[in-house]
Amino acid sequence: MLTLQCPYCGVAADETELSAGGEAHLKRFGPGSSEEEFHDYLFTRENPRGVHFERWRHSHGCGKWFHAARDTQTLEVFGTYKAQTTEPPKDIRDAITAKRPGWTWRDVA
Ligand SMILES: [Zn+2]
């Protein structure tokens, strides 16, 4: 079972206490963007076998949204952080790189 620590209330919550919210860190496109950009924003999602950043809600706890970095294949959790964070924190990216050398995420250096 997947267990994620809520970064707001500190509870280690089982997945039965959580609601999945899809991919984290989507770049939003609205008025003035091209049709292709808006289409990709609405419908295109990453679905990797490996490291992934996701949105989760502590729905049966404090109710807040947060982000989690985990491996979709092994269920290893690299860390969780607040939803207002615009990109994965450096300590989490470093932890992932230490365990998955050569790993990259989009345009984060
Ligand atoms: Zn919580």
Based on the model shown, name its key terms.
6 strands; SoxD; SoxD_sf; globular; binds zinc ion; single chain; two-stranded antiparallel sheet; Sarcosine oxidase subunit delta; 2 helices; Folate-binding fold; 109 residues; sarcosine oxidase activity; alpha+beta
Which strand order does the major sheet show?
3-4-5-6
Unreliable segments of 5+ consecutive residues: none
CATH class: Alpha Beta
Structure classification: alpha+beta
Question: In total, how many beta strands?
Answer: 6
**Cα-atom Rg, whole angstroms?**
15 Å
**First CA to last CA: what distance?**
32 Å
Strand content: 25-35%
Q: In the residues, how many domains can be counted?
A: 1
Count of DSSP-assigned helices? 2
Q: How much is the average pLDDT? A: 92
| SSE arrangement, N to C | EEEHEEEH
CATH third-level topology: Folate-binding fold
What is the helix content?
A: 10-25%
Major sheet description: 4 strands, antiparallel
Ligand names: zinc ion
* CATH homologous superfamily placement: Folate-binding superfamily
Based on the coordinates given, report the CATH architecture: 2-Layer Sandwich
